[in-house]
Design goal:
Hexosyltransferase, three-stranded mixed beta sheet, seven-stranded mixed beta sheet, alpha/beta, 14 helices, about 40% helix
């Protein structure tokens, strides 16, 4: 059986690659071929150690390198790094690719479902889910919002073949579409969907269930909501990046479970309570802890579906104990919900 190709693009230090690879492999019922796309050959040994194929960005063809240099002049912050993603069809030889950020975890067997999603593309060459924070509604796209780049389904073969897609790459690089900015590929794909909607397939929100609290309160909460089953959960917020990394390591390896998530959520809150950090239970964070819990526990027998009412433990706050002595997750769960 042919494998499903899954890739990670990493620039700078690489940490916890083994737990990420183990989690993704154990979450799939179909064979996976994992790929690491990185900016230095030194990372090749890490990829080999964890049975991943290594691809150096330096091996991009001359045309792609020239495009990326032009993109870099139109971005700031990490935007230039993100702009390697729209060029991967010029580096990677495979037909189709699932491109994941490293702060993503699997709640369902996403790889087995990928083929059906690709078949729904029609004329599209890329698939991304909506941005689940109000940034784009407030910045140029009040009717449609924008797209989030944490989970991408890339039809690399179609990208190579599409004159329209490659022409747009050159128009963006020439500055004809304006600045690309801090968010790089997200801004690129959001703009591309507005200009050439046939090239971009909007994935169901459950393919990239985001935990960002960015601009919380600037718009009604429906912006952050998703009614679809959660396949991949994306910790695109500092607090939740740490939680996703913990979930990658939480035994047993594989799909998120209710027990795993309750343990990690409780441990995160207990550590913060012991340190006197209160922001983890601000209204926005409460909402996102509940979202993570629902992703893990939907349909689970005996799931604590009222987990959203997270409260500080009086014992933890009063004792200021070492986190290892903080109360168990049962002490942190309110029984009645909101």
């Amino acid at each position: 059986m042919a494998c499903v190709d899954v890739a990670f693009l990493m620039s700078g230090p690489v940490t916890d690659l083994h737990s990420l690879a183990d989690h993704v492999r154990a979450s799939s019922s179909v064979p996976l071929c994992l790929h690491l796309v990185a900016d230095s050959a030194e990372k090749a040994s890490l990829a080999q150690r964890w049975r991943m194929q290594f691809h150096s960005l330096a091996a991009m063809p001359r045309e792609a390198l020239a495009l990326h240099r032009a993109f870099a002049n139109l971005t700031h912050g990490p935007g230039a790094v993100y702009m390697w993603k729209p060029l991967l069809h010029l580096l990677l030889p495979m037909r189709r690719l699932l491109l994941l950020d490293s702060d993503v975890a699997a709640a369902r067997d996403f790889a087995a479902a990928a083929a059906a999603r690709f078949e729904a593309f029609g004329a599209a060459v890329v698939g991304l889910a909506a941005e689940q924070a109000p940034f784009y509604y407030l910045n140029g796209y009040p009717q449609t919002g924008g797209l989030n780049g944490g989970v991408q389904l890339l039809d690399l073969e179609a990208m190579r073949r599409s004159r329209e897609y490659n022409a747009e790459l050159h128009r963006f690089a020439a500055g004809q579409r304006g600045e690309i900015g801090f968010l790089g590929d997200q801004n690129f794909y959001t703009s591309l969907r507005a200009l050439r909607p046939e090239l971009v397939h909007t994935l169901d929100c459950g393919w990239n269930r985001q935990l960002s609290t960015h601009l919380w309160g600037a718009m009604p909460s429906w912006v952050y909501e998703c009614d679809s089953p959660c396949s991949l959960v994306h910790g695109n917020h500092p607090t939740f990046k740490a939680a996703i990394a913990m979930l990658h390591r939480e035994p047993p390896a594989g799909l998120l479970s209710c027990a795993k998530c309750e343990a990690v959520i409780a441990r995160s809150i207990a550590y913060s309570a012991a340190a006197g950090i209160t922001r983890l239970l601000a209204p926005a964070e409460r909402y996102m802890w509940r979202t993570l819990h629902q992703c893990c526990c939907a349909g689970a027998a005996g799931a604590r579906t009222a987990f959203a009412q997270l409260l500080w433990s009086d014992r933890a706050a009063a004792r200021k104990t070492h986190p290892a002595d903080a109360p168990s997750h049962g002490a942190l769960l309110a029984p009645d919900g909101f």
